Amino acid sequence: MKLPLQRAELIQKWGLYRFTLACVAGLLFMLVTGYQLAQLQQKNEEKVALSEKQTRQYLEDENAALRKQVAALQVESVMAASSVSSYKKMLEAREQQGRSLEEQLSFYQRVVAPEVTQDGFFIDGIQVSPLASDNRYRIKAVLLQQNENKAMLKGELAVLIKGSLGGKPHEIKAGEGGFLPNGNIKWGFKFFQTVDEEFTLPAGFIPEQIVFSTEVFQWKSKRGEYVNSVNWIDVYDSPPEEGSQDS
Q1: 0.85 cut: is pTM over it?
Q2: How far apart are CA 125 and CA 142, in angstroms?
């Protein structure tokens, strides 16, 4: 039969047991704490990963939006360039139309209403009369200006006679053959100037029209141009036929 343990032995025995329990409790605490720390770290890592994912998604969305904006700007740039090109073409077409209208107006002014282009200069009293010699004529005219404020005008008057020779159209310019051998008629006046010239036409030439043209200068500045034509028959002063007068 075993005897009861003595007091010292019991203390020694239960003290070791408490120590073992304390070690086991410590290990359990460490395990629980480590597990909790691991869970906490995992949660933090998940939060970081989620944050990184959200940041990446945000950046991708921003990048996509920027790409759309760049594409839209490129489209707008292309459309703007196209609009500018169309506008330039429209301006060029308008300028071309304006030049065409100016040319038409200039043609009208030169042919139909020359007095509009030459700042009041005009020719009046044109008369052509025959001389005694065959094919010899005299031309008279008066150069005038209609400006209220008279200024010194000058220029050179070119004279061209149109007609036919040998059944074909023919033109004679001043200085050609016997027609105004000195060439264009130089003129300059403040109020008026008379023209009185003799000339010869080729034999067989049938005159039909006289064309006058000149550039009008005031001092050294060109003020305009004058172009006018008259029918020969309208300005030709034919002598009376013999026997036409009353006896």
Answers
A1: no
A2: 6
Sequence spans of domains, the chain: 7-112, 118-235
Tokens linked to 243: 């026997």
Q: Which CATH number fits domain 118-235: 2.60.40.1180, 3.40.50.300, 2.60.40.1400, 1.20.1250.20?
A: 2.60.40.1400
Q: What is the pLDDT along the chain (247 residues), one digit of tens a residue?
A: 444 555 566 556 666 677 677 777 878 888 888 888 888 888 888 888 788 888 888 888 888 888 888 888 888 888 888 778 887 888 888 888 877 777 666 555 544 444 444 557 889 999 999 999 888 999 999 998 877 667 888 999 999 999 999 999 999 999 887 788 889 999 999 889 999 999 999 999 999 999 999 999 988 888 888 999 999 999 998 765 544 444 3
Distance, CA of 117 to CA of 226 (rounded, Å): 7
